[in-house]
Design a protein that fits this description.
The protein is an all-beta fold. The protein has no helices and eleven strands. The strands form two sheets. Strands 2, 4, 5, 6, 9, 10 and 11 form a seven-stranded mixed β-sheet that branches. The chain has a four-stranded antiparallel β-sheet with strand order 1-3-8-7, with no helix packed on it.
């Protein structure tokens, strides 16, 4: 089983930085796709970044150049480094995982595993 738990959210001013973490307390080594999605109030869950088994990454246009997704397989942890934060980045951020390839996954509900989320609030 895969169990995901996010942490690292908080409140920052625009231009600030945060690093989100997602720990997998299940399988010793997870070799599927892992991703970060976010959901702003009144909106649907949208993809932010994903990282594949081979380490290749993809980003939403809105965060390219500002966010970096990475993983530490030994620590079974997924990270999202967020720099130059903007008020429009305010959302609940979720960690998701699935055994399939990232290229086969689009919407959040296609992922088999998801965490409870961590709130990020960016003030202007």
């Amino acid at each position: 089983q895969v169990q995901l738990a996010e942490s690292g959210g908080g409140s920052v001013q625009a231009g600030g930085s945060l690093t989100l973490s997602c720990v997998n307390s299940g399988y010793r080594y997870f070799s599927g796709c892992m991703a970060w999605f976010r959901q702003a109030p009144g909106k649907g869950r949208v993809g932010v970044a994903s990282i594949a088994k081979d380490g290749s990454t993809r980003y939403a246009d809105s965060v390219k150049g500002r966010f970096t997704i990475s993983q530490d397989n030994l620590k079974k942890t997924l990270y999202l480094q967020m720099n130059s934060l903007k008020p429009e980045d305010t959302a609940m951020y979720y960690c998701l995982a699935d055994w399939r390839s990232c290229v086969d996954l689009r919407a959040a509900d296609e992922y088999e595993y998801r965490g409870q989320g961590t709130q990020v609030t960016v003030s202007s």
